[in-house]
Amino acid sequence: MDINMAEQRVKELHDTLNKYSYEYYVMDQPSVPDSEYDRLLKELNEIEEKFPGLRTPDSPTQRVGGAVLDAFQKVRHDTPMLSLGNAFNEADLRDFDRRVEQLVGHSSYSYVCELKIDGLAVALKYKDGLFVQGATRGDGTTGEDITANLKTIHSIPLRLKKPLTMEVRGEAFMPKQSFIALNAIRDEKGEEPFANPRNAAAGSLRQLDPRIAASRNLDIFLYGIANPGPLGIEAHSEGLNLLDSLGFKTNKERRVCKTIDDVISYVKEQSDKRTTLPYEIDGIVIKVDSLDQQDELGFTAKSPRWATAFKFPAEEVVTKLTGITLSVGRTGVVTPTALLQPVRVAGTTVGRASLHNEDLIREKDIRIGDMVVVKKAGDIIPEVVSVLVDRRTGAEEEFHMPDHCPECESELVRLEEEVALRCINPQCPAQIREGMTHFVSRNAMNIEGLGEKVIAQLYREKLITDVADLYTLSKEELVKLERMGEKSADNLLAAIETSKQNSLERLLFGLGIRHVGAKAAKTLAMEFGTMDRLKETSAEELTAIHEIGGKMADAVVLYFDQPEVAELIGKLKASGVKMAYEGPIRTILAEGESPFAGKIVVLTGKLSQLTRTEAKDRIEALGGNVTGSVSKKTDLVVAGEEAGSKLEKAEKLGIDIWDEQRLMDELTK
Known about the structure:
Layout: H1 3-26, H2 34-50, E1 74-76, E2 85-87, H3 90-104, E3 111-117, E4 120-127, E5 130-136, E6 142-144, H4 147-150, E7 166-173, H5 176-188, H6 197-205, H7 210-214, E8 219-225, H8 236-246, E9 255-257, H9 260-273, E10 281-288, H10 291-297, E11 307-311, E12 316-328, E13 333-345, E14 348-354, H11 358-364, E15 367-368, E16 371-377, E17 381-387, E18 397-398, E19 412-413, E20 421-423, H12 429-439, H13 452-460, H14 475-478, H15 486-499, H16 504-510, H17 518-528, H18 531-535, H19 539-543, H20 550-561, H21 563-574, E21 600-604, H22 612-621, E22 625-627, E23 636-639, H23 645-653, E24 656-659, H24 660-667
Parallel strand pairs: 2-11, 21-22, 21-23, 23-24
Antiparallel strand pairs: 1-6, 3-9, 3-10, 4-5, 4-7, 7-8, 10-11, 12-13, 12-16, 13-14, 13-20, 15-18, 16-17, 19-20
């Protein structure tokens, strides 16, 4: 066979194998036996080995898993992969519908309901129709490049049916049968079985050897397009239909519902079918269908206002509470945790459950040795619901919180208006360790490889005493730690070095300033731009910012007034940690320089010259604060075409209203 014949045969095999694969993995309607597919795949592989130049990235032979990776590279998502707000009952769903109705006015709207697959959220990028990159959700902004592993999932097309450049989102999962088979193999080998299909899927896709992922028969459902606007799509349901036409696998159980009553009926129907499905689901995702209405509804700091996730009621089980252990958090709060006889709850094995505080233990009369009812709150956090008092034997023991810190023996205090006991010793080892663990966490400095155990070792060996010491660690010091080889040490040092380039809001959140969460940290970073400017601010300046209250302002000023904080910031700066915000900084302008300075602005309706995000960024860069709803505090409403209830409310409240042209005139002055 010469090169021309080989090239023609490779094309024929690509087309045939892709057709068979689509029929089998996406449509579930195979037209040939597995042996025929395997025969053609073997023929293709032999041709590619003879003519390596004919092996392309979208070849069906590339699904078997390639070379072992050294580490996963970080990937920044083009648009954030936000989490959804939760609904747990019918009342929550009706509240969600009521909020949607208030924000979109009397315009008609409908919902798309989809099964909430219990797997791992991923983003897939295609360039000119070719699959070029796949990433995990990560912290929503930055994920990990797992392209090689995702290529092993046969229901992900390596080339689309049209040469589009786009990013799509989906949920990779392990079917129930694959999960059972995998655990049977692990059991035979004497290995620990996976607790549930979700963990098995996540663990498979985070293997550095793609051949492991290839052996585990993963699957995927696609549920959205990251930026549908350029594709001319006007509704989420249209986007799903487009995904179908391009060769993606979507979940056919979805339904467009005209009313919230239809949504509730769908939820009940799918709840009854849940156990019969060949994959795990943990709820229903409900989204407003119209993309224009989604745009109008907007987002909170954490989730879209146009979608919610109904979580199925938690499964409750009975087990024995064998003990209560105490932990000290980074703020000094001492938290009791129940130790349980291991039991399966909602698909996972549980051996611990939250008890929150001593008041809850007293209120529920929880004793060591009790038989207790345990459930998962929102299918995530195990908690003790109640005690089976009638099953007591008399051998149960009452539990009393100690007077002194279980870590440093300092006296515990209960601050005014708090139910928790707190250790107020700033040198408490537990608080220092927890503070460091928070500093390196995903939403803070995001230093992969620095988990609780490594932090504890570093602290125990006196290699670190504060977070700044992380930036002076050497390879020689790290390789002496347990289970820390040279490659792990190199990867950790690289992750520490990379974290120096994080934007200011990550550093502020990581420092653990009281009352300052991730959203407030970003607000402070946007307002002040640099650490030096923030350090010199006053409580009055801080409370002038719309999102910052008195308690938070006092906490920020108090934090930066401490000499040890100044020393810590100095050490971090000397190590090269970035002290500036990377996003659009809100320009602090003198009065009269900008019509937006210090004003609360609401955008509504369709804008033709800017996207909503572009308008928001430009207004905030000129000192404005763009929010999603109209209230008495709103200073200005910008109304585009087809503006609805927000415009009506602004007119009733006498708020200043601009059209889009007035906005553009002011932005381009």
